[in-house]
């Protein structure tokens, strides 16, 4: 595992993924334990100089919503022009309470909130690249222009948006860490174990917050 410089370094950023009401128990696509990690993310956030927040932000009728496909049910997988798409309950519709960041999330020094999944026809689990694997959100450019070379990811859901963001961060050349105890998973059909495997194979460092120094 690479040496970890101080978290206050301007070359390091914390990426807080999708800590939004719809992914919290009681929400439309609740991730078990999603609320439990919020205080830990707040404490971690204080230790980083650079904090970036990702927000799932879908237009009404989004292609990832099961009701957008007559006869289909949530959690079925369908074929869209860009490949396989898991269908979800309607969630994180832009400008609705479910899409808001969790009220207890406290990251006052975060400088960027990057919204994703805004294209009606394309999903985007990743905060870097949409599911067509071509359209970028601009996040890699933002980080690179600011001299950031190392990212730590936390949030929801570990086996979807955190994993895809971490894989894309790695592909874009960032030293990439996922702070596992500050994430929670949906775990659909073994997706958690598969995600851990994929991240490890890709060279993403999976750590616990207790091993963070600085
Ligand atoms: C997510 C499913 C659909 C996530 C977002 O944040 O992991 N999962 N949209
Ligand atoms: Zn979504």
UniProtKB/TrEMBL annotation:
Main EC class the enzyme belongs to: hydrolase
Enzyme Commission (EC) number: 3.5.1.19
Record key words, sorted: Hydrolase, Metal-binding, Pyridine nucleotide biosynthesis
Any one GO molecular-function label of the UniProt entry: nicotinamidase activity
Pathways per UniProt: Cofactor biosynthesis; nicotinate biosynthesis; nicotinate from nicotinamide: step 1/1
Isochorismatase-like domain sequence ranges: 13-209
One Pfam family in the UniProt entry: Isochorismatase
Record-stated family: Belongs to the isochorismatase family.
Protein name: nicotinamidase
Originating organism: Pseudomonas fungipugnans
Organismal lineage: Bacteria, Pseudomonadati, Pseudomonadota, Gammaproteobacteria, Pseudomonadales
Record gene name: pncA
């Amino acid at each position: 595992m690479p040496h970890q410089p101080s978290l206050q370094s301007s070359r390091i950023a914390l990426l807080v993924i999708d800590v939004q009401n719809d992914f919290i128990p009681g929400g439309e696509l609740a991730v078990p334990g999603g609320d439990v990690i919020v205080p830990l993310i707040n404490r971690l956030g204080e230790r980083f100089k650079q904090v970036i927040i990702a927000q799932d932000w879908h237009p009404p009728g989004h292609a990832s919503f099961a009701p957008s496909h007559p006869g289909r049910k949530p959690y079925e997988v369908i074929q869209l022009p860009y490949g396989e798409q898991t269908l979800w309950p309607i969630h994180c519709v832009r400008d609705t309470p479910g899409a808001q960041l969790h009220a207890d999330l406290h990251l006052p020094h975060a400088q960027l909130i990057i919204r994703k999944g805004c294209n009606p026809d394309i999903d985007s689990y990743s905060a870097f690249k949409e599911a067509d694997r071509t359209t970028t959100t601009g996040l890699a450019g933002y980080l690179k222009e600011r001299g950031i070379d190392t990212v730590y990811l936390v949030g929801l859901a570990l086996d979807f948006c955190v994993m895809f963001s971490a894989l894309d961060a790695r592909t874009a050349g960032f030293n990439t860490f996922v702070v596992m105890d500050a994430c929670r998973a949906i775990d659909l059909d073994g997706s958690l174990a598969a995600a851990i495997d994929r991240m490890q194979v890709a060279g993403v460092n999976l750590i616990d917050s207790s091993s963070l120094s600085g």
